[in-house]
# Entry
Amino acid sequence: MAQSDLRNEIDAPHVEPLLPVEKRLIGWSLGLGIGLLIVLIAINHFVPIKL
Amino acid sequence: MSDVAIKVSQPVALQARLNEDWLAVIVGLLVFALALVSISGTDLLGWAVTTSVYTQLASALSPFAKAYAWLGGGGALLATYAAMLVVLSAGVASLGGDARKFALAFTAVFAIAYASWIAGSYAYVAAVTPAEQQKFGIAWSLKLTNEGGFIVALLSGLVIANFFPRFAEWLKEAIRPELYIKIAIVILGATVAVTAAGRLNLASSLLLRGAAAIVEAYLIYWAVVYFVARKWFGFSREWSVPLASGISICGVAASIATGGAIRARPAVPILVSSLVVVFAVVEVLILPFLAQTFLWQEPLVAGAWIGLAIKTDGAAVAGGGITESLIMAKAAAAGVKYQPGWILATTATVKIFIDIFIGVWAFILGYIWTNHVNRGPDRARPAEIWQRFPKFILGFVVVFAVSLWLALGSTPQIAKALPSAAGEANVFRVIFFVLTFFSIGVLSDFRKLWQQGFGKLAAVYFVSLFGFVIWVGLLISWLFFSGFKPPLAS
# Structure
């Protein structure tokens, strides 16, 4: 693949709409991530760092 | 990774990465094992060169162990160079590289990188406290600590990449930042274990908090960067996946692993990796100093933040080293002397926790892509999790576990001798850090990257990094690490 092809591709990409599976991946990742962070923050609160 | 890596085809790149991982394990374990022999009273690595802060160049270098004082600084430097040359040349030959070309290039790389390290130890650059300035009879200094040598090495590499491109091309056989940092991380396992053994409760608390880094990198950063790349910048899926992985998880390794998993064309993740390296250079030049200015009273927050914000193993872990030196220097100037090792250990813990799941994440993406996005005969297989697992982490775990056992489960004599042995191995860890910094600089040809159409990719990186990666990383580091400080030095 020539470098000029890559450059053209980056500058004017072929539009690909978000598929439902991509939306689900983004949504589930964020939801799970925020949920797990809340759990970890709670653990952090109840099990503080021991010196 | 500019021109060098872009020319590499993906199967070759993946193969080389896996082999490089195992080579890092072998070399790291070799250094660790030889250093451990010193516990028995036979010092096999005491000739390794160390550099002190100096005003007279003649006093800068010395062998690590007094038993080898007869070698002198120059002899120790030559011995260290020769030993590394032999071991690494053999290693590169085993990877299928050109050992002769590597040996020639490595000689230049070692010479420039170590000269940079020595320059960084000059008292006017490195002295931190008024007491040190008085000791060296100087009225001012840049106060960069002797680890400012990393910055000098990085700048030296940048100058070569951007002003002497032919020389950079000639050096390329020995420009292997991934190999150097992986060896350094394996060796780092001993220092982290010795540090952890002193405060096991604190160390286990840090491990628990490493889990937050995994959640943040894979589930939050990745999703947001992918969305930004796809929706705001209109990138295709093939570009967005390696880009999101490079910015969110762990630069080069994650970009190549996930790019391979979704069956992207080889050049795509490689090109993204080049971008990650360039941004890592910028981050290493800025973030440690920001951490010193704003987070010096929260050293563990600073260590975790560096691990979360800088996106290549080499730059992140080495950046943690610089941050530790800068913060310890500022704290020392305020009369607080922390035990060394804790800030770097926090950065390394965060980074290693993130690395562990690269293979799993690549498999998840590969499964989704090959089954739901681009269905075809080449489906993702669970075996790819192991294929894409960064093997050097196994070396780190082995060194860490053995060192921890020696520190806590063996005889008091061995436990007492262990810190010195770990210190001896650490001499090589520092040298591999220096080589990493220099190599990253040499790979960062800004002009060439711009010519290759990097503007829009860089815009995604810039928006993601400064728009939320740095700030979310800071928030999470603060939530999990604020209020807890390294133990004070006795």
